[in-house]
């Protein structure tokens, strides 16, 4: 049997409110007052209810936790009725906030598993992946429900909350990976900055991801779990002199996802807002204060809530290529190229492009694609600086390597992400050297569009292309490597692409 938590009663008692973020609803309280339960060492309360279509983004279930609790455990289930074609069915996410509350900013945040788990626990010495170990203190805790999609019939749920009484364990002091690996001095370093372990909805451990990263020829990776930083303290053993592990989060809002890349250890970034709430700037600034980069992820992805709606005014870079190359990546590439044209036209700063695998589980390939960054050394700060400056290109694997430069007639020289300062009509030679891309076609793209398409590279995958232009003809030039097209004039999938080289005086 379960205690009913009717949605209407929740509105009558607490009302729908706005927490400075997305609309939220708090239901009736789950209480634990049985002395007999304490004597048995464990006590469970079960509640149930139904959320209608149009429910708030977050529904909170308060739980009164008495003194003397060693562990809190939550298990939940919900119905999945059949729905008409084209109509989303039920999907209910879940997380936990402790007695410090649910206010935006996450002071009371204790974990989030989204829809990846049906149960979790938290105690002082340990917690389910996605959740933070720590004392289970007396006070009002909150189970956070996120009705991601609700079927026309509504979403019926059941939640079982179990408190285990006893002496608490000791919370371990977190150990984080170092911010520097051995490196090769100033060099090109390969990395994958969007990855998921079992600390969110991935299926791999940090150790397994690190092994796959090394096998893929990567020098650095970034931890980016959905809406939790619980993995930060579990990467130290996976890092090493040969692999830099940066820490971050994928902030998964209802209006798009953003990767916080390379934040300080232990940084949590809240996700409970929409574009209309005008709160994203606050959290973008938090990411930067924590030493991270703000990178909108898969901006044209087609999954519900994945399409980026916050604009790019706060972006340090943008993830143009996410996982296996698909039509939404092609749209993101075209959109980014339009932003480059606008930056030239308006004389303002430009936003570099990145690529990452977003790998979750087999058969997702870690390092496909990967961002290759020119950095002074293999450290968090140096890699971030290279990404921020756009000194990078994106390749489908470590087999593909590029060298892309522009030079003037008087010895002027510039590489990827740089500006070749020459007179408007002075001759410019653009040179691309490629290895590891058999039968791929080179395209050179400018603010006018594609101005050069070469013959397919030989089976060896190596080749050199030179193209001559002027700054008056091309405000920038960037390179693409394309696989053979499947049919007609549609370009083939990317094998690699570069950030631009800008031509002429600003």
Please provide a written account of the structure.
With 506 residues, the protein is mainly beta. The protein has three domains: 3-165, Jelly Rolls; 174-398, Alpha-Beta Barrel (TIM Barrel), CATH 3.20.20; 400-506, Immunoglobulin-like. It is 13% helix and 36% strand. It has six helices and 31 strands. Strand 22 (401-408) and strand 23 form a beta hairpin. The longest helix is centred in the middle third of the chain and has 20 residues, at 327-346. It starts with a strand and ends with a strand.
Tally of structural domains: 3
Supply the number of helical segments: 6
Could you name the CATH class of the largest domain?
Alpha Beta
* SSE-based structural type: mainly beta
- The fourth-level CATH homologous superfamily of the largest domain is Metal-dependent hydrolases
- Regions with little confidence, pLDDT below 50 for 5+ residues: 9-21
Biggest sheet statistics? 11 strands, mixed
Q: Percent of residues in helical segments?
A: 10-25%
Rg estimate, integer Å: 25 Å
How far apart the termini lie comes to: 71 Å
Overall pLDDT score: 94
The CATH architecture of the largest domain is Alpha-Beta Barrel
Per DSSP, what share of the residues sits in E-state strands of 2 or more residues? 35-45%
Number of strands: 31
Could you name the CATH topology of the largest domain? TIM Barrel
- Taken from the alpha-carbon principal axes, the silhouette is elongated
